[in-house]
Amino acid sequence: MRTGSEENDPEREKLNPKGWLQSRPSQQFNVIRRVYQQDALNKDADYQVPTKPLGYRCKRAVQSCGFGECLLNSLPVARWLPSYSPKKFLIGDLVAGATTAVMHIPQGMAYALLAEVPPIVGLYMAFFPVLIYVIFGTSPHVSMGTFAVACLMAGKVVTQHSTHPDLINAVNGTTTQSPFLSVGYTPLQVLCVLTLTVGLIQVVMWVLRLGAVSTLLSEPLVSGFTTAASFHVLASQLKDLFGIRLPKLGSNYKVVFTVIEVVKNIPNANWTAFGISAVACLVISLNNELLKPWVSKRSRVPVPIELIAIVVGTLASTFGHLKENYGISLVGTIPTGLPDANVPPIELMPQIALDAFTITMVTYTISMSMALIFAAKDKYEIDANQELLALGASNVFGSFFCCAPLCASLSRSYIQYQAGSKTGITSTVSAVLILCVLLWVGPFFEQLPRCVLASIIVVSLKGMFMQVKELNKFWKLSKLDAVVWLVTFLVTMLVNIDIGLGAGLLASVGALFCRSQKPYTCLLGRVLDTDLYLDIKRYRAAEEIPGIKIFHYCGGLNFASKNLFRATLFRRIGYLKKRDQNRDDDSNYSKSDFEWDSTIGKRVNCVIIDATALSYVDAPGIKSLVAAQRELVASNITVLLAGANGPVLEMIERYNSLESDSERLQLDTFPTVHDAVVYYKMLEQTKEPAITIAS
């Protein structure tokens, strides 16, 4: 840090003729030390491989698993609730809780339709699992409950495995007496066992500490997947928007076939339902685009336009007799009270395990992403493994009360955060208000037209539709990320959700492999009168040292990249030369475009491998180093290794201890490139007298 006198000193800094900032000589310093080889540095610096005895690790494990510490880690509510300050947090939590509850009602009822179950299930999801998440969850700002993509994926499973959806007349599991009841499962039974399976998978992942598994789903994959899933959601609502009936379609190519069937059935559309849908979509959209921004500047409580829409729709249907006069489809029976706890059909688990795992990955990734966004804003930590337990426990508990798999909602979470949410009390307040709706208000919505709920769903998809713009960002940042987005989006939208997610994972793995096969490599040159060695193609002031080639390699050296390392090394130093010297870029060359240069020993005397960016090396990688060294030594070229980190050097040492003398990697190693350069120059100077005498 400069003092005031230094900042006002006009001679402190000045520009050189090229415009570069040049410091006064008083700011320069020189470092005088011996030229180190790695072994000498290790001895002088007292290098030790860090080890932890088994007894020490067992002791630490036992200490960390004490009952009190284990209870606090597994029950975050035990940490924040005793220190809760009503004076600081209560008002914000009450306002945010009421605001979130108002959004839960229309969204829960609407998204339940995506899961192919009665709308009341969405309200159950806003009550039962949310209370469990308050106890186990670590994010006070995410709004758990229904989410369009999760409900859509659950609806796919329900459609595939339920055999008599028309037999349901109540949510508590009672069905019409029928001889077919013994041969299949109701949609609610399938949904319950699906939720239970998802919850158990999440609990097992928590036990195995697999919280980092969410990183397997990259940002381009999640963006492309959710964008394509929004088209599936839209397609599933077209029948209610137009008031038409569609035949049961297969699971693959469903979006395409749905659009075809809708077009075929346009002459049979209920134009009254379509008119109601159009008006509802227009009003909600105008509120979101015009009124909502204006209100947000003056109040943290938004206009509950979705709730207003379903109330107005219910009143219009009740007094206008829309079903009798115009054939409008209604929500139907909504029971009051809470459902009875029922054990899901466990025998169905093996058949839905794969679908449950897919839903687990998607819901956990989306929920963690939302939690991390708010954690970064408010500077607190999210425990990824604890979130697995929170989601798993919530899903297991909710599965006994007809709930779909739990997930954080993007829109509700943002509203809850903006409304002033501070702690988990927000979710508790929201759940209590939802309980009031379940106990007394539910039957009011029995006359609600389904087209109104469909309109709420379609308008809420705008944010996911707009993710299409992210393709342009990914394309500019990385073509491989853009390819991952496109593959995930196209396969998910055109084929199937599950297949699309699998294709996205394969594309992500392929992108990682492609990146590993194109590591950054270059030749380094020395900047005059410094110990800086920079890429000679990027820094014009960096000049190669005559007779010395410094090869910089960035990445891992393993079985997959060993051949690439060897070929790139030989091309960079000139051992492999181009047949066509008029081409500058060798990135698209094949092996046949290069030929061996047997005269390299006359131009290159030393090759220094800069391993400062070498992240990992395995046994096949070390063998490739041994082979490359032998070929260069056969041409009278000295090979040195510089800048390797501790784990790499330890791996080389372990490899040498297991191999015979002829197979060992015998390289002089140095802590820096400059040490290697100075060492080689000193070595050459000691040879000069002998060469002179001989001549």
UniProtKB/TrEMBL annotation:
Acidic residues biased stretches: 1-10
Alphabetical list of PROSITE patterns matching this protein: STAS
Listed transmembrane segments: 113-136, 188-208, 220-238, 271-291, 303-322, 352-376, 388-411, 423-441, 448-465, 485-514
Coiled coil: none
Family matches, as CDD domains: STAS_SulP_like_sulfate_transporter
Highest taxon in the source lineage: Eukaryota
Region (Disordered): 1-20
Subcellular location: Membrane
Domain STAS: 538-680
Membrane topology: Multi-pass membrane protein
Keyword field: Membrane, Transmembrane, Transmembrane helix
Main location: membrane
PANTHER family xrefs: SULFATE TRANSPORTER
Name of the protein: Prestin isoform X2
Organism encoding this protein: Bicyclus anynana
